[in-house]
Amino acid sequence: MGKGVTYPFGFYASGIHCGIKENGKEDLSLIYSISPCVSAGMFTTNQFKSYSVIWSIKNIKNEIRAVLINSGNANACNGKKNYLLTQKLMEELGTKLKIEKNSILFASTGIIGVDLPYEKIKNAFDKLIKNLSPENNYLAAKGIMTTDTFPKECEINTEIKGRKKEVFIGGMAKGAGMINPSLATMLCFITTDAVIDREALEFALKESVEESFNMITVDNDMSTNDTVICLANGLARNKTIHIDSSDFENFLNSLKELCTKLAKMIAFDGEGASKFIEVEVKGGWCKKDVRRVAKKVAGSSLVKTAIAGENPNWGRILAAVGSTNARIDMKNIEIKICGVEVFRGTEPLRHNEEKLKNLLKNKEIKIEIDLKRGNFSATAWGCDLTEEYVKINKEY
Amino acid sequence: MGKGVTYPFGFYASGIHCGIKENGKEDLSLIYSISPCVSAGMFTTNQFKSYSVIWSIKNIKNEIRAVLINSGNANACNGKKNYLLTQKLMEELGTKLKIEKNSILFASTGIIGVDLPYEKIKNAFDKLIKNLSPENNYLAAKGIMTTDTFPKECEINTEIKGRKKEVFIGGMAKGAGMINPSLATMLCFITTDAVIDREALEFALKESVEESFNMITVDNDMSTNDTVICLANGLARNKTIHIDSSDFENFLNSLKELCTKLAKMIAFDGEGASKFIEVEVKGGWCKKDVRRVAKKVAGSSLVKTAIAGENPNWGRILAAVGSTNARIDMKNIEIKICGVEVFRGTEPLRHNEEKLKNLLKNKEIKIEIDLKRGNFSATAWGCDLTEEYVKINKEY
User: Fold this and answer.
1) For helices B387-395 and A301-308, angle between their N-to-C axes, nearest 10 degrees
2) Among A176, A196, B128, B264, fewest CB within 10 Å belongs to which?
3) Which active-site residues of A does the annotation give?
4) Which domains are delineated in chain A?
5) Which residues of A touch B324 (CB under 8 A)?
6) Given a cut of 90, is residue A262 above it in pLDDT?
7) What is the distance between the alpha carbons of residues B347 and B356, in angstroms, rounded to a whole number?
8) Exposed/middle/buried for B350, CB within 10 Å: 0-12, 13-18, 19+?
């Protein structure tokens, strides 16, 4: 089992049931660092932001010591008094942890429009703090789940020159429902013991999110609660990583890799999904074009249902590509499904249909598109669309 | 039963089975005018256009006499030789009808990437022409259906000053699958006996489509085949309608009304739909804002599944509104579901939940949103998202 957010030095985690979820499962998690952290965050662009998000945006530039996360209640669109409750809750937790309330971040996921279960959360603080441990990362990862079917954790090492040979990065995430075009919440918490300045951390996080979590959502639809936070407590004692230092690229690549792994876990765990879909687009005129096409195809309901039906309907793929305004060589496009070339130039290609139908029975489906207009490429991830998705969301 | 496209003077229609659909249903339709028509068309913006669309775009400005429509085959992404077949087919039909091939428009809907069934269509021309009649509008409306569960027809009268008191407008349409965010095809054919110049007809059609068909699709995703065509044969002998003549507004309003009725029929007949959803947005800063919000809410998978589950989940409505960049008064928004106010200002409102749950059992669900920022309003239409939709699209 992985170590997730407690993989880097000096991070503890805890996850308990405080009474929000009716099924008795973990619904309250805490990440705690033994020393202050430089932090970076990316938050939902939705105009209606959860009060938890509003709190975190306000405090992200402080020296951070802890992150509280509850699941089962979104703390969004529930009236102004809940912002006061949020502040009070942070104050209570600060007192218990003997740290400033402004050094705590907060994230929530769950039902919108319901009062924050202030008493339930507050009364659970003693137990939550008592359970803080480098071993409880798995329980913390469970405490942030909603309709996820498995906790998502990951960790990675990065080589750093100079005195220290390595720094550690760990993370946990929760999924985004059907991912697209839904508004279900995506949360991700990343920890590292690297010494890194704020500018470098912010840049690295933005770049990494762009190529990972943003490639599993379409049209930048965001929930009221989407949050990605990265904490760096500096305990690795490496030479400070600046945006122009030679170690920065290593750190950035590791962070990207970690985020991509978590993003793929989210796609794999899409609500009701039976298959994982990877869409690789190359030959693009610019980065924007290939990203747009990859996300459009991975997010197309018609492509998603065709994959669910193990139906090699490349016409729907082509229609999704064409519905974007990406630059395409209309006379020279290439499409492969599961490695089998089905379209080239302006013509469908003869292929072994039996073989392709068999390949579509796999759990992981790859779609490759070559736009033949340039050298940019991008990959998006998604899942198929099944009857089960509809069933889950009728009731949730 | 209505008269649809044969309602105005001088239009004949026909619909037969030529052998494309395996179930023996009508799959080939023809609209014919006894005198030449001024015509206007709006076609898909998809970069991969059906060869039928390419043909029609090329000929729309000619004097039009007929429109051929087949269902079951999209004539799209099937290789260049199919454009030659398309031209040959138009020539054959022209010869049979004793009109120029360039006076015929063509539309197709069905499976992408399959050769145009040239022989089947050509061999059916004699029967198709023999059946032309002012009575066969219903068969023509059936011949353009794919997964539609009922033919969609409509007609309307417009008052015109001067010698003639009225002109007639008729239309038929086929639906757009799940409507959003799918790429299934929407076709609409409108006929009128009005005397109207091209500029006025083009403007009226564009305006009407904007407020009707474009309010049932989201993100302007379009299929390879989407087509709206309006033919005006001038047999009403009214004084020519120009864009600045006093009759223009009457004509425009009637065309809008006709298009809106057809658009609502399409929304009502969304694949697998059990409920019709109307989203009315008012108080907008500008037209673009209200249109965007209305379409976003009507197109949200989470709103659609909630409605399918008869679940008054206004949080999903609010999240969909917030995910747009429309100007909103965040402290003063109002939401009603089925006439029951559920959110005002920044607070959820206490309401009779039992009553609302009962209202949600209805087949027609209305959502009202007041953005409180201005005087613009717009309405969008959609349907709920059910397990049945997924089932249809896994197999189709």
Assistant:
1) 70
2) B264
3) 185
4) 4-265 (3.60.70.12), 276-395 (3.10.20.340)
5) 47
6) yes
7) 18
8) exposed
| pLDDT tens digits along A68-94 | 999 999 999 999 999 999 999 999 999
Q: How many angstroms separate the Cα of B61 from the Cα of each of A81, A240, B56, B58, B197?
A: 62, 68, 9, 8, 12
Q: Do B76 and A321 touch (CB under 8 A)?
A: no
Residue-level pLDDT at B179 = 45
| Residue that has been written with the tokens 């951070």 in this structure | A64
Beta carbons within 8 Å of A215's beta carbon, 6+ residues apart: A263, A291, A294, A295, A298, A378, A379, A380, A381
Of all helices (H) and strands (E), which one includes residue B391? helix B387-395
Question: Nearest Cα to B139, choosing from B229, B44, B26?
Answer: B26
Whether B185 sits among the annotated catalytic residues: the reply is yes
Asked if the Cβ–Cβ distance from A393 to B321 is below 8 Å, we say no
Catalytic hit among B44, B109, B146, B185: B185
Of B306, B322, B395, the CB nearest to A46: B322
The answer to whether residue B231 scores a pLDDT higher than 60 is: yes
Please report the beta strands in A10-151, taking only residues with DSSP state E, as ranges in sequence order.
Answer: 11-16, 28-43, 64-73, 104-111
Binary contact (A391, B389; C-beta < 8 A): no
Q: What is the DSSP string of A326-380?
A: ----TTSEEEEETTEEEEEETEEPP--HHHHHHHTTSSEEEEEEE--S-SEEEEE
Of B47, B305, B322, the CB nearest to A48: B322
Determine contact, residues A256/A211, Cβ cutoff 8 Å: yes
Report d(CA B70, CA A29) in Å as an integer: 59
Amino acid at B128: L
8 Å CB contact between A104 and A94: yes
Query: Degrees (nearest 5) of the Cα angle B342, B346, B352?
Result: 20
pLDDT of residue A111: 86
Taking CA atoms, B192 is separated from B157, B236, B240, B258, B358, in Å, by 10, 9, 13, 11, 43
Fill in the DSSP letter of residue B213.
G
Q: Which two tokens stand for residue B74?
A: 């999209």
Number of DSSP helices (H) and strands (E) in chain A, helices first:
12, 14
B184 contacts in A (CB within 8 Å)? 302
B340-391: per-residue pLDDT in tens? Answer: 999 998 888 888 889 999 999 999 999 999 999 999 999 999 988 877 767 7
Residues of chain B above pLDDT 70, percent: 93
Q: What are phi and psi of A124, to 5 degrees?
A: -95, -5
ipTM of the complex: 0.81
Mutate to test the interface with B, among A73, A77, A328 (most CBs of B within 10 A): A77
* pLDDT value, residue A147: 83
